[in-house]
Amino acid sequence: MVRAAWMYYVLGNNQNEIASKLNVSRPVVQRLIASAKDEGIVSIGINHPIASCLDYAELIKEKYQLIECSVVPDDSEESLLDSLAFGGFQVVSKYIKGYTGQIIGIGSGKTLKKTVNHINFRSPDSKCVALISAMSSSGQCNYYDDVPLILARNITANYYQLPTPRYASTPDEFSVCNGNRVFESVISIADKADVIFTGIGSLGKTSPIVKDGFITNEQGNELEKLGSVGEILGRFIDSDGNVVKCKINSLVTSYDIRRNPCPRIAISGGEDKRKAILAALKGKWINGLVTDEHTARWLLTK
Question: At the topology level of CATH, where does 1-48 sit?
Answer without folding.
Answer: Arc Repressor Mutant, subunit A (1.10.10)
